[in-house]
Amino acid sequence: MIQEVKIFQGSASKDIAAKIAENLELPLADLKLLRFSDGEFQPMIEETVRGCKVFAIQSTFPPADNIFELLLMADAAIRASAEQVIAVIPYFGWARQDRKDKPRVSIGSKMIADLLMASRISRVITMDLHADQIQGFFNIPVDHLYASAIFIPYLQSLGLTNMTMASPDTGGTRRANAYAKFLGTDFVICHKQRKEANVIETMQVIGDVDGRNIILLDDIVDTAGTLVRATEIMLEKGAKSVRALCTHPVLSGMAYENISKSNLVELVVTDTIPLKKQHPKIKVLSTADIFSEVIRKVIEHKSIAGHFIF
């Protein structure tokens, strides 16, 4: 069985791919990326994959090169007679484009799903999709894992009293409520209105935060503007401390500067996207154990239902 499995690493996910391969006690497959002077690139598989089950590990955060590299990896493996290609996408990029929220815009996540299926990928394993309904954009199995499996033990290890879960926007209400129920805590909501992407116009807190240790929950931290604004409002209303848990550290624009200037105690993220640089307020928890265990069960045709906490 082990000889029939190949683990490929994409350029965007080298560290997590190496950890997953180590956990599975498998070597990373010999894959090279040929680059042309004009920016074009071509994945080259340097070993046989005939009849193999191939796991291609690649997060698809911008630039678009990352998603296209994954598509080319899959195409190369299929053309080399791989039996099956499974895409392990720790961070599923373009997921914020999950519906037509204004006239004449694309639904980017549906287009990405179509591209993955067109490249003959037979299964997708990912974590904390921005919108659960994206699974329905696929006509192949999607294993949607949750970072709660590592965030909850971390929260329990802190031993905080008067802990309250908080959603930085109404879209994350279900997530915050699920954590609160599991941990037996209260939860509050921030209601925000935007002028445009990454620009907040107004924000209000719904619920009592006075004297409480607040845990902000979100799937993505981009510019960190929402987290910083929510932190300020929580502290103004009497919160004792504010921490944030965000699965995917996109951290673009002025994110690092915003976090440095904020009163956040810490920002806890995962390694679905590698950090651009280290930061004293940012703590990284690895998802490699979760992905490697799920991959092992997929290989052995075992149930992975136990990994879906919420």
3D structure, described in words:
The chain has 310 residues and is an alpha/beta fold. It has two domains: 2-146 and 288-307, Rossmann fold; 148-285, Rossmann fold (3-Layer(aba) Sandwich), CATH 3.40.50. The chain is built from eight helices and 14 strands. It has a seven-stranded mixed sheet with strand order 10-9-8-11-12-13-14, with helices on both faces. A five-stranded parallel sheet has the order 1-4-5-6-7, with helices on both faces. It has a two-stranded antiparallel sheet with strand order 2-3. Helix 1 packs across helix 8. The model has no long low-confidence stretch (mean pLDDT 93).
Give a short summary of the structure:
By secondary structure, the protein is an alpha/beta fold.
